[in-house]
Amino acid sequence: MTDAPAIELRGISKAFGPVQANRDISLSVARGTIHGIVGENGAGKSTLMSILYGFYKADSGEILINGNPTAIPDSQAAIRAGIGMVHQHFKLVENFTVLENVILGAEDGAMLRPSIAKARKLLTELSSEYGLKVDPDAVIEDLSVGHQQRVEILKQLYRHADILILDEPTGVLTPAEADQLFRILERLKAEGKTIILITHKLREIMDITDTVSVMRRGEMTNTVQTSRTSPAELAEMMVGRKVLLQVEKTPAVPGELVLSVRDLRARRGGVERLKGVSFDIRRGEILGIAGVAGNGQTELLEVLGGMIMASGGSVSLFGRPLDITGAQANGQSRRAMGIGHVPEDRQTEGLIMGFEAWENVAFGYHRDPKYNMGLVMDHAAIKADCTDKMARYDVRPPNPRLPARNFSGGNQQKIVVAREMDRAPDLLLVGQPTRGVDIGAIEFIHRQIIALRDQGKAILLVSVELDEIMGLSDRIAVMFDGRIMGERLPHQTDQNALGLLMAGVTEGAA
Amino acid sequence: MDKMPKWADVVLIPLISVVLALLVSGLVVAIIGESPLRAMQIMLRGAFGSAYGWGYTLYYATNFIFTGLAVAVAFHARLFNIGGEGQAALGGLGVAVILLGVDWPHWSLALAAAMGFSMLFAAAWAAVPAYLQAKRGSHIVITTIMFNYIASALLVYLLVNVFRVEGSMAPESASFAPTTHLPSAADFAGGLGFRGSTPLNISIFLALIACGLVWLLIWRTRLGYEIRSFGQSETAAVYAGINPTKIILVSMLISGALAGLMAVNVVMGEAERLVLDFTEGAGFVGIAVALMGRSHPVGVILAALLFGALYQGGAELQFEMPAISREMIVVIQALVILFTGALDNMVRLPVQRVFLTLKRRRDRAAPPHPAE
Amino acid sequence: MDFLTILQILDSTVRLATPLLLACLAGLYSERAGVFDIGLEGKMLVAAFFAAALAYSSGSVWVGLVAGVAASMVLAALHGLASITFRGNQLISGVAINFLAAGLAVVIAQTWFAQGGRTPQLPSDARFGNIVLPGAESTIRGIAQQGPLGQIYSELISGHSILVYLSLALVPLTWWVLYRTRFGLRLRAVGENPAAVDTAGISVVGLRYAAVMIAGILCGIAGAYLSTALSAGFVKDMSAGRGFIALAALIFAKWRPWYALSACLLFGFFDAVGNRYQNIQLGEFIVPVQFMQALPYILVVIVLAGLVGKAIPPRAGGEPYVKER
Fold it and tell me: What is the dihedral of CA A455, A460, A465, A466, to 10 degrees?
């Protein structure tokens, strides 16, 4: 074939109502290379890829595949053009088998049996060719996330994709699984496939890509050879100013014992998700819980936050037992005891998206006397408090009457953080504090967490971002399959060692 | 930031939806072979043309305020209570039990007791589906519909076997004692032309008070805040320490009690005895009223007035145009539910587009530097 | 209770289960595709009316069937418009359709026939007759003289309308479509995860409309059966909650075709018992007729209360599909 780039975009623009998501974007990716796209949340990466995959139609601009102008009005056209996409949230039918998922939409005729037989054969070939081992008859919900991702990749290969787009593929993987993924990608590249990797993890960009583009506010600001740049430089290009990749903090001075968790167990949907977790947190320290999503961290936060009941074990706060199975195991009494909780998902838990900002500022604290006048709520007092918090936590726009859904991700999170941290709780539970938050807000939220620690409060930090865990924690506990695999001090460990623990490998066994 | 001003959302869209529903209804009338305009005239005259018409219109509207509020309160907790009909029927039973069972010296005491019993019986009838929804996840839409059927069978049984007056064939209870009769509009507003025959009674003031209380509950109290939170997001409510079981139960009990209160208007205020099927579909009209009124008490009052007029005007229409069945009301009600509820986006999206275009034009018309 | 009486009850079980089964399968297609449908009741009712009306005026029950199915499909399309195209609330849409059907059927019946919202009694050639299978007896006396096997054949298996046999055949057919065809795979997928279907390049909207329209056809047949086979004409509210009972049966059956058959037969059986024994005497106590009439509805509540274990509906059920950014 020719030397034409596998993908060339010329002047792509796309607006959603008043928001310009992509502005005059041009990009060229050579065949057989891995190209990274980095950018903050809302920079327009996903929109651009959705246009390439036919989910949205660009307002203007041109797409060339292998040098030929190609119209991509829908996903079918993208598939025909040889484009495959692995979404951040897998598009798999959970109660279908691997085979059924692979053939969905690419069946051979109206009857299933012949399609399945054919797919089984092809899948075996593909699996061995690319090292993508997976049981074709396994049901998706029984597979690990890493294997589910393989199914997604196989799905694309089954459709003869030559261009593979991966959107934040490592968010749910252990470092070891991520390494495996990268080996697969290298192999695909060697076979002549072209890969676009969208990520916010600069380290991954440096490790695996050949070229990298930076997006900011809907524009493509830069495209460089990966070997000629550095993480710091990329970060600066993303944000448009110098960024501190590390928050500065002084060593911890742990004090009195605040939280003591012993052999904690919890179930969800009949499955035991916490299988005997024990740890302590003292005043003035941050305990970071590392681990791949879905290994019990969510349940840990929910039991401590009073959202679900424990099925066993005990928890004590300042030496007094905490109700984890009875009538007092709810968010209201937790708050009354001085436990703050920044939940993992601000959109479905932390905020009521249809409520205005001021109503959200009282959320969970709406029974607080300072927000009430006898039988009715004191709206004026809540609004005043909201205005005050918005100013101090730099929430933009500082308008208490704006519904939560109209704020950006970072500003939504600042509302939650302001509400939960401003009362200086003795114990703060924090889940994924910076997920989907822009870099400016990340810095701000990290500084707030450390400031709270320096006031002598205890903090339990759950995050799937190892960088965040390493940067903030005074001690790190790693969770795997509902258990704590071990505790480490951040300056005495590294990402590889933690990665092994996250995959369930302890030194004794290794 | 917002796609359109609030007034458009609250007033303009429901208004367009209702107009569309009425237009389609007119189409149905035209297809039947009658003149929609003439039908409209007859209905308007029937509903508002005389004190007699007003009396019935407001009497019906009183029912619909109660049942509309009932649906609205449940809606705020994202519960779809289709059981207003059955709950109101049980409310009627409560009224009959207490008014027949006790000798009341004065109507005011009787009213208080009847209110209490109607709310109690109706809430109890709503409690079972609510409990099953909260504890067993049983679909409240289906269970409340089933409870309507069961309530209807229960009332038939009781009226035939328990309440029926000895020697009478009619499945209805004995008349209540005259001391329990509520003041009618002829008594308190005779100056406005209401006669003794008007069904309108002081219950309409109860309905208006209920509107105020519901407003206070939903938008000013902690419970209302919790109900609205739960309705918007159950997981967020759990995060905030709001007990879902409690919210489901409490909002359904309130909803049932409100539906039950319509029995005070009908059974105590108008019929003055318990009769079969006294609800006449008012429980179902409540759904249309709540949807059209955007689950807000003020909207509910306006929507209830519209349906009151439709009911009364529809009765007049039946005399003048026998070809049009009284069921036409049900068609209109269905169309209102369809346009204000299910087809909301059909109206909303074009309206949003119009406002967006207007805004853009305004922005363009007022650039930072004036044109030459 | 003698053998023949039992057979007669089972026979009427089959008759009464048929509309439930058709409606239940209708709901199965729709809900498996992720569209909740509480408008089964209304679609049946409107079909019952148009089937009876057209059968009466044309004299052909087949014309009636086509009219009933067509009317039901119009309402199905309306449900699709509201819940798929305009992403409205599926429950509200269903409720609206139920009222629309209840109102329209009577309004049109009144203008058309002026008999107080009902159709005239259908003559027997404008109804679905009973098919007597080869070798079966068809008279009561003839059946009574047969042996047990012959009685089962003549009373229970033979002598139903063609729609009964059709609905029974639809059970294996539905199973086959669902689990053995490409369409079935896609249908189940769109009810579980429409995003997977969308990214695979298949139209979510198209699939869901197909499912909703199939539901319309099946409800249409169910309604036609009510007014032209089970009874001889349309009367107001004649569906009597069968659409909701079918939904309960669907939940009971956990959205699976063979279980749907069992669940519908169960509800049909209680209906048959209630019809046959208007007053059951238990010692001193006489069970009132109203209780027997309310029994199917009470059973629905009991079934939904989960005496049968937790049912997990299709995961994307009830949610309109919106593309992610």
Answer: 90
Strand A286-290 and strand A458-462: the pairing is parallel
Give the separation between CA B273 and CA B99, rounded to whole angstroms: 9
For C248, phi then psi, to 5°, come to -65, -40
- Distances A233 to A236, B32, B168 between C-alpha atoms, Å: 5, 75, 95
Interchain CB distance below 8 Å, B328 and C103 = yes
Partners of chain A (3+ Cβ pairs below 8 A): B, C
Q: What is the mean pLDDT of the segment spanning A166-173?
A: 86
Number of Cβ within a 10 Å radius of residue A70: 18
Among A residues 107-146, those touching chain C with beta carbons less than 8 Å apart = 107, 109-113, 115
**In 10 A of CB C121, how many CB atoms?**
13
Q: What is the pLDDT of residues A267-301, one digit of tens each?
A: 988 889 999 999 999 999 999 999 988 899 999 99
Smallest CA–CA distance from B225 into chain A, residue: A366
A28-39 tens-digit pLDDT: 999 999 999 998
With beta carbons under 8 A apart, name residues in chain B contacting A412. none
Q: Rounded to an integer, what distance in angstroms lies between the CA atom of residue A8 and that of residue A95? A: 38
> Which residues in chain A are closer than 8 Å to C201, comparing Cβ atoms?
74-76, 78-79, 105
Contact A27/A215 with Cβ under 8 angstroms? no
Please give the Cα distance from A401 to A398 (Å, whole number).
9
Q: How confident is the model over A299-318, as a mean pLDDT?
A: 96
Torsion of CA B223, B229, B235, B238, to 10 degrees: -20
Higher-pLDDT residue of A4, A316: A316
Residue A315 near residue A321, CB atoms below 8 Å: yes
The closest of B36, B88, B5 to B262, measured between CA atoms, is B88
**Whole-structure pTM value:** 0.92
The answer to whether the Cβ–Cβ distance between A85 and C199 falls below 8 Å is yes
Task: Tell me the chain A residues in contact with residue C32 when contact means C-beta distances shorter than 8 Å.
Answer: none
Q: Which residue has the higher pLDDT, A453 or A239?
A: A453
Mutate to test the interface with C, among B331, B332, B333 (most CBs of C within 10 A): B331
Strands A376-377 and A372-373: antiparallel
pLDDT in tens, A420-437: 999 999 999 999 998 888
Q: What number is the average pLDDT over the span B70-99?
A: 97
The amino acid that residue A313 corresponds to is G
List the structure tokens of A203: 């380290």
Partner B contacted by A17 (CB < 8 A):
yes
Distance CA A362, CA A383 (A): 9
Q: Which residues of A touch B362 (CB under 8 A)?
A: none
Cα(B212)–Cα(A255) distance, rounded to whole angstroms?
54
Q: Which residues contact B202 (CB under 8 A, 6 or more apart)?
A: B111, B182, B183, B184, B188, B269
Q: Which of C186, C199, C325 sits opposite A91 (nearest CB)?
A: C199
Check CB contact under 8 Å for B236 and A352.
Answer: yes
Chain B residues touching residue A18 (CB < 8 angstroms): 356
Summarised one tens digit per residue, pLDDT across range B101-113 is: 999 999 999 999 9
Q: What residues in A contact B243, CB-CB < 8 Å?
A: 330
Six-digit token pair at A460? 């339990």
Per-residue pLDDT, A139: 95
In whole angstroms, give the CA distance from residue A424 to residue B252.
Answer: 38
Q: Is B280 on the interface with C (CB under 8 A)?
A: no
Distance CA A276, CA A295 (A): 13
User: Cβ C188–A93 below 8 Å, yes or no?
Assistant: yes
Residue C325: band (very low, low, confident or very high) from pLDDT cuts 50, 70, 90: very low
Instruction: Return the SS3 of B181.
Output: coil
